[in-house]
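To: structure subgroup
Subject: Chain for Friday's discussion

All,

I'm putting the inputs and outputs inline so they're searchable in the archive.
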Amino acid sequence: MSVVLIVEDVPAMREQYAYDLRRLGGYETREADDVPKAREVLLREPVDCILLDLELPGEDGFALLETLREQGADTPVLVYTGTGDFDRCVRAVKLGAYGFLDKAESIERVAHEIGRAIEHGRLAREVRRLAERLEEESSLVGQSGAIRGLRELLAKLAAIPSPVLIVGESGTGKELVARDLHRLSPRATQSFVPVNCAALPEQLVESELFGHERGAFTGADRTRRGAFELAAGGTLFLDEIGELPLAAQAKL
């Protein structure tokens, strides 16, 4: 169950937020009436989202945002204010807040935005985890901006169950990219099947890709599984796909 920390100095408002968030979103809640107490909560336990009033006694909400930024914390923070001061909200976002709300917003809207913030935080942590894993295990060697950008892109693409087009000159490592993408994906425990399309004889393209049954044509003395079947549940890498006959490309 997700935990939301509510930082609000007005007891009635803080308690109402806590009650409504438990009721509408099923969240566990923690409460603090100032920044020092919020820091104490965060030292004791992790939370999934912080609902932060910018107008607090003593240290204001910006002080907590500064603390979180200095610590490199990735907890999403939704700030809210009753002043209608847009510049303060922009400043909060620049300090790392996920978003901002007006105190006049309905509790339903607040609960909805908290749900979005928690999901955003979860996805951000997953992308970072995959990027770190890619950094540790990747066969893509290098620390240039281009290589780091490629690793980050692969981490984002890995969870998407969709075909990926990898473009590059011959010898630039397209298969290495494909293998890293497979390794990071939920399909990593399944097969990675590379096929060099440029090396397939035209008359055997369909047999190699889609397989055939015994007796399907002259010389087919046994059933053959095609690349698509071999890669089922895993990843099929079609290298030099542009070299396939157009008729075969249309069947992919």
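Points worth raising on Friday:
The CA atoms of residues 13 and 48 lie 20 Å apart.
Residues 107-137 form the longest helix (31 residues).

D.
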